[in-house]
Design a protein that fits this description.
The protein is mostly beta strands. The protein folds into two domains: 22-31 and 157-250, Sandwich (Jelly Rolls); 36-153, Galactose-binding domain-like (Jelly Rolls, Sandwich). It has one helix and 20 strands. The chain has one helix at residues 2-19, and strands at residues 22-24, 27-30, 39-41, 55-65, 71-78, 80-85, 88-94, 99-101, 107-117, 133-140, 143-144, 148-153, 166-167, 175-183, 189-192, 198-203, 206-212, 219-222, 230-238, 246-250. Strands 13-2-14-19-16-17 form a six-stranded antiparallel β-sheet, with no helix packed on it. Strands 3-12-4-9-6-7 form a six-stranded antiparallel β-sheet, with no helix packed on it. It is elongated. Residues 1-17 have low confidence and may be disordered. Residues 174-232 form the Beta-galactosidase galactose-binding domain. It comes from Bacteroides caccae.
Amino acid sequence: MRRELFICCLFCLSLLTLSAQEIPMQEVAALEQVYGDVQESEGLLPMNELGIEFGYALYEAEITVEDVDPILAVENIRDYASVYADGKLQGWITDNQKNIKLTVSTGTHHLQLYAENIGRITYGPEILDNSKGLFGSITLEDVEIENWKMTPLLIRDCDVEELQFTPCQTKQSPCFYRGTFEIETPTDIFLDTSGWGMGEVWINGQYIGSFWENISQRTIPVPAAILTKGINRVVVFELKNNCRQVVRLSEKAIFD
């Protein structure tokens, strides 16, 4: 009886120690490593014309700003995009919020929109039009932006173990982060992504799920089967780049 109680106490202590771990993301990998074939067009092309059924695409163009803080307006966005100007996050657009004010000065700037296809339309009047990404037109102060460069981002298809990481530095654009944690006994746990924006997570090269700050779920289940005794690697792709550089282990699911 005492032996069983002792083993139980050791197990509970290991869970407590495990769940208290913070994992600093100490390395970063550039997103350019997962670029697909670039296409150029005068107008926007939806994801399906870029050969993307699910996942992410990057839309880029040069813009000329004549008045400070201009309004960028998107005709069609499915389903979500983070907006960057000269590598700095401006905000995000969705199907319900298609306008955004750019905090930029007058002159020429490099516009980047990282779009994600969250899912497919399965009901309603638009079920026959399953275009995803950006399509139609994008205007800046009512002037249409032309000459787009569009790049599939092969994030979910890539082998994160093959990415080239460097020591962490301040990174304002979307990228991959990597950190390590150590455990004595693999067990089912959760990864807490509180404070991060939107993206994907892998542990030891295995994809475990996605996160989004707009939903109540803050943790991703991590099965014991993909963990190893000793050092384990976690890779996070961050789309919005909230400048968060720590994830945590948790022994239970966390919801807001």
